[in-house]
Design a protein that fits this description.
alpha+beta, Immunoglobulin-like, 3 domains, 20 strands, globular, binds ligand BES, binds zinc ion
Length: 618
């Protein structure tokens, strides 16, 4: 605590130092922001890590990472202490670059933020090496048994850094307010490949040691590692897919448009600054749909539907290469700057590849999710600019950041015109590249560059700082969805015969809209009629399964429960699990059933997911 207060006081007197190198400039820019990240215990504004080198062995037997991390840092005054974040790590020893032993102290464990490591620095040294290992409790890490993988022969592990989990596998200044370059040496068991958010191998190497380098500075939450029996398949000259060998062809077929997505993104908002863009399709326990780890998006296998119907997720993670990875929210209160911009960008990519009709379906589904979610959120969580002090930053992952953020930008587009909007966004990315930004600075930039001569009729302040959805929110109209709504009515009147000839051309999204709009009082015969004719309980499409099962729970349609159980046992994606367990917990019999399933399933989930479900089923 003492260090934190002193860092704030210190900061007031911060003097800008002139730097020769571009990287130093970037780092300085990042730390000159007056607003502190409240989710780090580190003194990142006094002493700032600029580069890290990891040297780790992946020990599957003990399910730990063991080794060291070396940090280079810059001192902004004569600070003689470096404070790092850590959580559930075992620190063995700390040295400086000349092998001098350094004294350090561990703070008290804070359940949310972890344990600070306060390292007493010697004069002159600007490098520390920390020898450490992770533990069973390290929240970022998921260790899978062979039977949890597609190939069933090798174990698998991956990390999830966002938002504040990197500190549970690397002792570091774990704030999105800093940027570092990194390199790594990772030792794996035989026949396993390591990949990172960095320049990656494309084959399993003999000797089992992999070297990595990430030359562009990134915030620590984007450091990522996955290790498994992996193969690689190219899509085009700069894009490709990593997956377990038995999945590789299927994944590459599904993601065949990836190269075109990068081309279209570049046309919209400027050069792709990260060289390659690859995707790794992980085992089904991965708790998110996707994670934008730079150069290597981590993705759930539940997007591999066989018909490319869920690839907007790739457009989303790719878009983060600009919004989020190039221009980064400086604190988790500004999370909407990452996600709202990314959803806007994602839909522009989807529009350019698959047409406006298609992207409008996505926008309308997004709007409905927003309305639904807002009705359940406290007013203080309905703001774009949040105050997450004392809360877990992951709780900011609501449709407010994503969809209210999207509709805010779309509102600007519709009022100001697409041409000006695109010009503005392209400049926003290039003017802030490799920097971090807070909402206040974005608003100043917006006023100066886009809202010149525009009076306050756009309710900008209301959008950002007030709850609810402002009146000038754009309206989305989708003919294809209107048609699906008509068919809901037909179906309720005449049963599934009325769907014949009408639904053959339906995309996944029309099915989703249809299922979500079934009336609350739908009866068992009607559900069974749908299930028998369209085999919904056996759908190969995870999004359809998730909304269908939700309906089945509400109506207590028992024939679907066997497949629901299989789904809950296999898939660890929180977005699917949370609403299903929540719905199950509303009814006593269902809750008992859910608890039994969860007893078996919990082990298959990543911390992010089981932490959420634990709270639902207490
Ligand atoms: N960066 C997020 C995932 C995330 C957010 C992880 C907050 C931890 C904390 C990622 O880009 C994302 O938004 N994923 C979505 C998919 C997307 C298509 C909306 C997901 O996983 O559902
Ligand atoms: Zn995202």
């Amino acid at each position: 605590m003492k260090f934190k207060i002193s860092s704030i006081i210190f900061f007031t007197f911060l003097i800008f130092s002139s730097c020769e190198q571009q990287k130093d400039k970037i780092i300085n820019k990042a730390i000159t922001n007056r607003i502190m990240d409240s989710h780090t215990l580190s003194n990142y504004k006094e002493v700032t890590i600029t580069n890290s080198h990891l040297n780790l062995k992946v020990d599957f037997e003990n399910k730990i990472l063991v080794g060291s991390v070396k940090h280079d840092f810059t001192r902004h005054k004569n600070s003689d202490v470096l404070i790092l974040d850590s959580k559930y790590l075992i620190i063995d020893s700390i040295q400086d670059g000349e092998n001098n032993h350094l004294d350090y102290q561990l703070g008290k464990l804070d359940e949310l933020l972890g344990t600070s490591i306060q390292i007493k620095l010697l004069k002159k040294t600007n490098q520390v090496i920390i020898y450490y290992k992770t533990t069973e409790k390290s929240e970022a890490l998921d260790w899978l048994q062979p039977n949890q993988t597609a190939g069933k022969t090798f174990p698998f592990m991956y990390t999830q850094g966002q938002s504040i989990f990197t500190r549970s596998w690397i002792p570091i200044q774990d704030s999105p307010g800093i940027r570092i370059t990194y390199s790594a040496k990772i030792k794996t068991p035989e026949n396993m490949m390591a990949v990172m958010s960095a320049a990656n191998p494309q084959e399993i190497v003999e000797g089992n040691t992999y070297q990595f380098e990430m030359k562009q500075p990134i915030p620590p939450y984007l450091i990522a590692l996955a290790v498994g029996n992996l193969g690689f398949k190219a899509i085009d000259y700069r894009t490709g897919v990593y997956a377990e060998p038995s999945m590789l062809d299927k994944c590459a077929n599904e993601l065949v448009d990836m190269g075109k997505m990068v081309d279209s993104a570049e046309k919209l908002y400027g050069n792709y600054d990260w060289d390659r863009y690859d995707v790794i399709v992980l085992p089904p326990s991965f708790p998110f749909g996707g994670m934008e780890n730079p150069r290597l998006t981590f993705a759930t296998p539940t997007i591999i539907a066989g018909d490319q119907s869920l690839v907007s997720l790739i457009a989303h993670e790719l878009a983060h290469s600009w919004s989020g990875n190039l221009v980064t929210n400086a604190t988790w209160n500004d999370f909407w700057l990452n996600e709202g911009f990314t959803v806007y960008f994602e839909r522009r990519i989807m529009e350019s590849l698959y047409g406006r009709d298609y992207s409008e379906m996505l926008a309308l589904l997004g709007f409905q999710d927003l309305q639904e979610e807002i009705s359940t959120l406290e007013p203080d969580m309905q703001l774009l600019k949040l105050n997450m002090l004392g809360k877990h930053p992951d709780d900011a992952m609501t449709d407010v950041a994503y969809e209210k953020g999207y509709f805010f930008l779309r509102m600007l587009e519709e009022n100001i015109g697409r041409e000006k909007m695109d010009f503005f966004l392209k400049n926003y990315f290039s003017d802030h590249k490799f920097e971090t930004i807070v909402t206040k600075d974005f608003l100043a930039y917006l006023n100066k560059n886009l809202l010149i001569d525009i009076d306050d009729s756009l309710n900008i302040e209301q959008w950002i700082f007030e709850p609810g959805i402002p009146k000038n929110c754009p309206k989305v109209v989708s003919k294809r969805f209107e048609n699906a709504e008509l068919l809901v009515k037909e179906f309720i009147k005449n049963g599934s015969v009325s769907l014949k000839n009408n639904v053959e051309s339906w995309s996944t999204h029309e099915w989703l809209h249809f299922i979500k709009h079934l009336p609350e009082n739908i009866n068992l015969e009607q559900l069974s009629d749908l299930d028998q004719n369209y085999n919904l309980s056996n759908s190969g499409n995870s999004e359809i399964l998730a909304v269908w099962f939700l309906q089945c729970i509400k109506t207590n349609y028992q024939p679907a429960f066997e497949n629901l159980e299989k789904f809950l046992l296999r898939i660890g994606r929180r977005k699917f699990l949370q609403p299903l367990y929540l719905e199950l917990s509303k009814n006593n019999d269902h809750k008992l059933w859910a608890q039994k399933v969860y007893d078996k399933a919990r082990n298959n989930y990543h911390y992010v997911s089981f932490n959420t479900i634990d709270k639902i089923l207490n």
